[in-house]
Amino acid sequence: MSSPSSAETFPVSTPAAAQIFTTLLSQGPLTRLEVGRRAGLSAAAVTKAVRPLIEAGYLVEDTDEDARPAPGRPASLVRVDGGRALFIGLKVTGEEIIGVLTDLCCRILLARHLPLPAPHPEAVLAAAGDLVQELLTEADGFGVRVAGLGIAVSGDVDRSEGVVRYSPFLDWREVPLGELAATTTGLPVTVDNDVRALTVAEQWFGAGVGLSDFAVVTVGAGIGCGLVVHGRVVAGAHGVAGEIGHVTVDPAGPPCHCGNRGCVEAIAGDAAIVQRVREATGLEVTDAAHAAALAHQGVAAAREAYARAGEAIGRGIATVANLLGPERVIISGEGLAAYDLFAEQIREAFAEAAFGSAAQCDVQTRPLPFEEWARGAAATAIQSFTGSHPR
Ligand SMILES: [Zn+2]
Question: Which among 159, 164, 241, 337 has most CB atoms closer than 10 A?
Answer without folding.
Answer: 164
